[in-house]
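Chain X:
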Amino acid sequence: MTFKNKILPAAAAIGLLIAAVVAVHSQRATPPAQPVAQPAQAPFKYYIGGAGIVEARTQNISIGTSLPGIVKKIFVEVGDKVKAGAPLFQIDEREYRADLLVKQANLVKARAAVAEAEASLKDYQAQYNLVRAATDRRAVSVDDVQKRRYAAELARAKLISARAAVTAAAAELKATQTSIDRLLVRAPIDCEVLQVNIRPGEYAQTGVLSTPLIRLGDLDRLHIRVDIDESDAWRFKSRTGAVAFLRGNRDLKAELKFVRVEPYVTPKTSLTGSSTEKVDTRVLQVIYSFDRHALPVYVGQQMDVFIETPGDQISVTAGAAAARTGGRN
């Protein structure tokens, strides 16, 4: 037997051995992956589960600007507590300052025109009074009297127009001053700075932005917005207990206090990414509150919420199901 004939059977035997080893290993059961953190367990016998997102008591206030421009200065930093009316950021106001000087000069000019019109009126009125007081009608013609009367009336009309021009110039000046004041964006309420998404030198746009220039909120007491599936909305009762668990550590929880229900069922926007999740689900949003120091949470963080429901709802559901099936099992 040649060397080549000896190699082929050996290679075939090695291939069979490798195939057998792979087959044995593939038959071994893969141990299930252990979760990083155990999920929270509902503390109630009957309950509704929902995902909640933490937000400020005032909701999260997105700050923008009513006038566009280059940001000149930022007065706050993330975490600062500010009072209502405190400056947040300043838009470059040089163009408006220059326009303000023009409006101030126009106002001075308009007031000077009023003084001139008042003097003219006094002159024409005096001339008219002079000819009107003449006792000898032969000394002054009727035509001259009429001309002086009309001249006095025209001077009076010019005075009214000059005063109106002063009012218009003052209004334009006030409008420019208001625009300059609007370039300094201020805090609407007592709150805390959650985000600062603008820097000096950047262009600040107007309108509703996907990322607000600054985000504010009152964090003295946090709120949590809970999404309840519309199929469970009828089971919700506001006077029952509710508990929120911190995701990642089910031992951290807080008792919730009911605040309000937003009585408009909205499309679900907070998705988990599960392949079985229905994206067309609508949810009822319920707002609860809890002490800021009860949990180490941050605005925007998601939590697992369980809301207690009365036990008699189970019998109601069973009775409705029996009615639909005619009492058949």
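Chain Y:
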Amino acid sequence: MIQPPYYHYRPHPWHGLDAGTSPPDLMNAYIEITPFDLVKYEVDKRSGFLRVDRPQRTSSTPPTLYGFIPKTLCGPRVAKVGGIQSGDNDPLDICVLSERPIDRVEVILETRVLGGLLMEDNGQADDKIVAVLKDDAIWSEARDISDLPPRLVERMQHYFLTYKMRPGEQSTVQVKIIYGVERARTVVEASMADYREAFPA
């Protein structure tokens, strides 16, 4: 029996994992935060290990699983799609809906892209792709962000408008638009192209 290929070492989650099985529709998501986390975790770009970024500053918790798409970059092409001067030079963020609670981080999910939020943070593009867990018992029927309950999308928008707020300071974050699957595909493809340019093989 022929064994499938495997990694002989733990790959870096940003640079070593595949972006997806059928881009830009079916994408992999590496999860950094769950809806149960009161601390924001983030992959350390050098080592690939998960580090504590900061405690959540407000009482709100992430409304979905949250992480990034491997081998993507929010660079100049992504910024151009949004009409923003520059990208934040981080992997493309992704929010993933799952009917069953998933309370572990550092897991890889196969997801179906539905849309996204065009977020601007300190003048930089910081798009949030919205997706559902592939083959999910409840959410897998969705094909566009318009198939989701509006209140759920509002909750995501509110979270990202407030998750960096500090008492006594003005927010530097704007959610400029919420977009559907066609634009999300364009953003994903742009982020993959930005990655290839920044990190040529």
